[in-house]
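Kindly inspect the following:
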Amino acid sequence: MKVEQFSDAHGGKRLVKLWEPEGFPFEAEAMTQIRNMAAMPFIHKHVAVMPDAHAGKGSTVGTVIATKGAIIPAAVGVDIGCGMMAVRTSLTASMLPDNLAHVRGMIEAAVPHGRGTDQQIRSGRDPGSWGNIAASNANRWNAIDKEYKAIIAKHPKIEPKRHPWSHLGTLGTGNHFIELCLDEEQRLWVMLHSGSRGIGNAIGTYFIEKAKREMERYHIDRYLPDSDLSYLVEHTEVYDDYVSAVDWAQGFAMENRKAMMEAVLGVLHKVFPPFMTEQHAINCHHNYVTKEQHFGENVHVTRKGAVQAREGTLGIIPGSMGTGSFIVRGLGNKDSFCSCSHGAGRVMSRTKAKKLITMEEHAKAMEGIEARLDADILDESPAAYKPIGAVMDAQSDLVEVMFRLRQILNVKG
């Protein structure tokens, strides 16, 4: 861990604690965002920067932000509740066929994914959502419908064009994925990555704009180094409404992952010998805000691309789509606000990756893994990310590795 101290505009001392991977220093843009965040007046103690950190929108991805009396909606972001889920099965490598192409096809058929064309969406044949609520998801939606209706009744502009139940149990796009993996004991794991989909985006976007209007209303906007650092103040109605909506979206994201996991395990039960799953699945957010106690005070903790790593808590740190992932147990490091990285962290923007990485390079990096090989996913190729080994080495005081997983099948949104 490195510690950086600097003075803010009023001469106050500010602290940043960084877990920087050796050989991969944080870029200048990210450091500017980190210092801007640390200088906000309601930061509790310091800002903690995880080894996968890289510049984001207003706030650096891979940052842990503890605040007193305020929350920055743009720091939470629009992929509210995005996170990981993993289940270990009793299946072993010897029980699997040599070719998994048909299994990938069945998973892709069972879990809506990707982004449809405008014509597909208008016709109701969007491959990324359900045309009608899946029977298996009806109970999940009914359990959260009342709270959703209350949010929409008060803030009708949040309501998306497609009803949220159409995204319950769907993967989405970008870096969201479903994988089959093997651990060192050759046991099969199912792992997936997704969040609150369209409704989380709608909630995040709406309240980010609300925060900006609040800053204008009180003439605070002129003092912000970035409008995406606009915040909502505790004990105001808009703050309370945001917290309620975010809590709901985070719950939706958890249920979304459970629904997808159920669908994927259903596929595996159709094609593989009878198997069991371990009793406790790991289901953890890495884009969210929650109330916690740190350094003797109750504060809001925003993990913008970071995982809770309290002592004994299990978490998931995925690498890129071709470099393996880790199941970890938290060590409860107080300086990190009991957190760790949420992945490897980008070294190339999506645009840059698509320009610089060739299909031949991508295919070589994905050898031995059943996955799509096309130009649309070059921005997710392993070369676009930091080496996961360097990232894990930098946080040995935050987590201990329980299992290392290597992918054998990958489904991308």
The first strand starts at residue 2 and ends at 7. The longest helix spans residues 237-271.
